[in-house]
Amino acid sequence: MSEKDKEGHLSWWQMSLIGIGCIIGTGYFLGASISIQKAGWSVLIAYLLAGMGTWIVFNCLAKMTAHHPEKGSFRTYAKQAYGNWAGFSNGWVYWSSEMLIMGSQLTALGIFAQFWFPSVPLWVFSAVFSGIGLFVILLGVEKVEKMENLFGVMKAAAIIMFILIAGAALVGFIDITEEINGGEKRAQWFANGPKGLWIALLYAFYAFGGIEVMGLMARELKEPKEAPKSGQIMLVALTTLYVLSIFLVLKLTPLASINGDESPFLTALAQYNIPFVAHLFTAVLIIAGFSTMVASLYAVTTMLVTLAEEGDAPKRFAKEGKWRVPIPAFLLVTFFVVISIIIALLLPEKLFEYITTAAGLMLLYTWVFILFSYKKLMGEGRKDRLLFMGSLLLIFFAITGTFWDDVSRKGFFVSLLFLLVIAGATWIRSKKGKRQNSLTPPGNGDE
User: Fold this and answer.
1) Is 349 part of a structural domain of the chain?
2) Which residues pair with 221 in a beta bridge?
3) Is 410 inside a domain boundary?
4) Once rounded to an integer, what is the mean pLDDT over residues 76-87?
5) pLDDT, tens only, 238-268
6) Domain extent at residue 313
7) Is there a contact between 307 and 317 (Cβ–Cβ < 8 Å)?
8) What is the DSSP string of 369-406?
9) How many domains does the chain have?
10) What is the pTM of this model?
11) What's the angle, vertex CA 18, arms to CA 15 and CA 24, rounded to 5?
């Protein structure tokens, strides 16, 4: 992105709205159906635990931001804590995770749009939405901020709208079908035993993905010291909305009616005798998916530019032209978006679940680095150590939960493949750096 030095212009509450815009998306509106299938009623525990774990990770990131705002955010902090290898690997792990998330979001957007146009292939919708998203990125960071502010309000309002309608149905103000009122098909507390909760934890964490984008945007705050407040209030409110809305889905919708190819909220709304509501909520789902996709596009472009500026990617990717965005970085991101569309064309079956699992895991690897960076740079107190261990344990359970599910397990191996490739690149770069340092005459090297 264009990086002219300027004073921050965002207040903490505006950053909170941007956070809502970055976080509420397909991971929640579509991914919740998978977690409900896996866990039944215990999915509520999964979202509470994921909210707590996310709150701790964001608090660590926000405190480092408040202490010293950096353009590279968590990647730069990893570099300061553990050296160049950590900055290089952390940056590319996050970049890869966001590109996987892009494929997940494009697939979900196609699924949502097929509610109106069921005969249109997924890849067509992926191409259209990605093209519009890339155009928004070209307009610059200010447009992204304004759009995320607006969409953040709309998405929060949609969840509240669902809660009000579902609550009215629950107390009898709105008529619902006999199938929903039938108790025999309701979800059990542990639909697949305790391991169902274990599996669902990853999808619950994925619904909170986006806090890293707030870190990347934190330099836009008028008062960087207010970064912790902006996220803490937002995450408490978001966790409450998540748990309450999913509780109402479980209360009103038979578990057998919920499937991974449709939002559980749309499934629930379709049962009500209000014709326009399902169409209105579908529009909101598309807006939600589109805004998180734009946030991901912003994140991968910004991260690529930062990597290039600090020598961890070819320098050409930091080169600015007439546009607000460095064109080489933009073109590379565009290339991988096209790859995502091709994947959507070739592998539509179970694609969302495979990519969602891999993307969620890669994101959690980044969060682990945030925790360790904070522990090394700032987290020296007893309370910090307890919170660090608690969040690390929750993330560990989310990652290992993939071992118990066939679909999630495939996503785990995809994420592992990415890690191995990045680890190999990190090792090669480290060896190259050591060789260059050994050839540099004394007094002429970098400090």
Assistant:
1) yes
2) 10
3) yes
4) 88
5) 899 899 989 988 888 887 788 777 788 888 8
6) 12-426
7) yes
8) HHHHHHHHHT--SHHHHHHHHHHHHHHHHHHHGGGG-H
9) 1
10) 0.81
11) 135
